[in-house]
Structures are given as structure tokens and as C-alpha cells.
Design goal:
The protein is α+β, with helices and mostly antiparallel strands. The protein has 11 helices and 13 strands. Keywords: Autophagy, Cytoplasm, Cytoplasmic vesicle, Endoplasmic reticulum, Hydrolase, Mitochondrion, Protease, Protein transport, Thiol protease, Transport, Ubl conjugation pathway.
Amino acid sequence: LFLATLTYDTLRFEYEDFPETKEPVWILGRKYSVFTEKEEILLDVTSRLWFTYRKNFPAIGGTGPTSDTGWGCMLRCGQMIFAQALVCRHLGRDWRWIKGKRQMDNYFNVLNAFIDKKDSYYSIHQIAQMGVGEGKSIGQWYGPNTVAQVLKKLAAFDTWSSLAVHIAMDNTVVMEEIRRLCQSSLPCAGAAACPVLESDVLYNGYPEEPGLRDRLVLWKPLVLLIPLRLGLTEINEAYIETLKHCFMMPQSLGVIGGKPNSAHYFIGYVGEELIYLDPHTTQPAVEPGDSGCLPDESFHCQHPPCRMSIAELDPSIAVGFFCNTEADFNDWCQQIKKLALVRGALPMFELVERQPSHFSNPDVLNLTPDSSDADRLERFFDSEDEDFEILSL
């Protein structure tokens, strides 16, 4: 009992309720009013999968850490943004988690994909070990770009979700590349370990849906992650309006980023504040119960979410979007094009039909801040993040 009461006491602040404001609250593409829809706002937030530090899980790699406290917050944020993609893919954006209510099997399938054990698709074990290939030792800090690259590699093995994951580098989204990726007829190009074409049985023995193969040929659901630098040491104010618009799009998966050395999963905004889920709480690892059912309450944040001023955001982030169909992607492209016309909103990235020819020039890809700037920066992004082009007015 004592352990259970510790879980939330480790938080360093009190949770405030939403401010009484006329400003709309935006949560992952949904608009709410604080005055008339407070319950709906809280239900939407609580329904997101909330991944925090855990302790006493099986050692990573057999002999590594059994807790990710102090180093795993960006990995947990990566899990949260990806879990939101899986929720949209398998349950839909309108799905809600209600405490004590029996959930459908697909919900547990999604949750099981993130449980802290080595054979879950997107477990902390898989992310930490796959990160070694990205030059990160187990227990080392990740930036938004590294976690995005690792999740992309892991998604290739998730034949149940059969996602097309695209990471748009150098602040440029190339529509042609995405269409080619999503229209590929192989359910998981690039993953040699995918027996899907021969087998009628998918993940954990669940039979595939009727018509699944036909649909795969047409369009694989897209997870689009865009790592960005929105300034040097602090966010350039000119991007704030555009960042807000990202949370207004129905395709929004939110944003991973945070403050220096402290990662958060941002799911919306109200006024000049971002709304986020915070992974910095250590909870005991969860074991399936006797019935094989997973106790899931600790994976849902049941208090009002945290808020912080947009101006405090570290400039190194990754923005996420989910396009279930080709029509969703076309709609997203139209919204991004319209956003370029909004006064006072500087585009955070460029949307182009095909790869610009200058991309083949290696000098263009390596615009780094000069070392005197770099020395001054109190920042948490990776060596990879230093290769980003710096966006400026």
C-alpha cells in the first residue's frame, strides 16, 4: 500500500485545473470549450496512453537497467506519440477509456505493444536496444530525432498495424516520397522478418481482418514524424502560431520535445500554454494479472494535464501526424498549404511535390550552429539534431 501511495507523491508540482477562459482548448485536432465541455476535455486527455518511468522491469538486454528513471523520458514520449498513432489506427480518434469499463481486445493489443518486456514491439527494451544502432548506448539520453528514427525501424516488425512511417528530414516533407511509401504493395517493405504474405495469422495469433491485403495495396496508414529546430537556444516566436495550428489538424499526433533535459508529450494548447503529459513519475512495472488481463489504470493520467508557456519550449522538437487514408493525407497537404498563407505564422517546414535537386549537395545538409553558439546552448537534443538546418527569419 505504501508503494502505491508513492506513485504520485514524487511529482514536483500541484495539478491545476483548466483556466476559466474563453479561449478554445485544442486536444489533438479536437476543439473544446472550458465552460461547457470540461468533462469531455478531461476524458479525452485521460484516454491517451500515458507512459512514465517504470522500475523493476526485466533487465534490458538481460543484464542492463531494470528502471528508466532519469534517462527514459524521451523514450517514453516516443512511446506516447506512437501509441496515439496505434490508437487512431486500431480504435479510432473517438475512442475513450472509461475507468472500470471492459475494453475491447484491440485496446489491449495496442497496450501490449508497449509493455516493459523485451518482446513487445515498442517496449523500452526494444527502443533502447535499437538505439544502439543509432549510436546511443543503453541508458543514454535521446533527442526527438533519435527516438523517431528508432520507432520507424521498430514499426517495420509490427505487421499487425502495418504502418508506413516517414521521417521528414531537413525541414522538408516530400509528397512524392510519402505516396511511394504508402502505396507500396508489400505490407512491410524493408523488414525481412515479415512472413505476412505467406501467413494468415498476424500478431499474437490474431487472424487478419477480411480485405486487409486488398487495402494494404491501396494505402498503408501513414505516421509522419517531422524533427525540427525552431530556433537556437529558445523557440523563435514567429513559429508559435504555426505550432498551434498543428494541434488543430484532425491528423495531429501531437509533439514530442520539452525543456532542456526534460521531455514531454504535448497534446494540445489553450491560449499561450501547451498541454502535455509528463513521463517524470516512476511507477512499478506492470505484470499481466492471473486472468492474463493487464491492469491498465496506471497507463492513463487521471488528473488534469500539465501546462507550460509555449515560450519555454526547447526549440528541438518532433511534430507527428497520422493519415489513415490517402484522402487524409491529401487533406493534410491542403491544410499545410493554407497555413503558409496565414499572416504572422512562419512555416516550420516546407511541403514540396518532389525532392529538390539541391538535396544531393552534402554541404546543404550540414548547416550547424557555429561552435561558440553550441557551447552556450543548454539543450537536450542529440548529435543528430545538431545536423538540422537552423530555421530563422
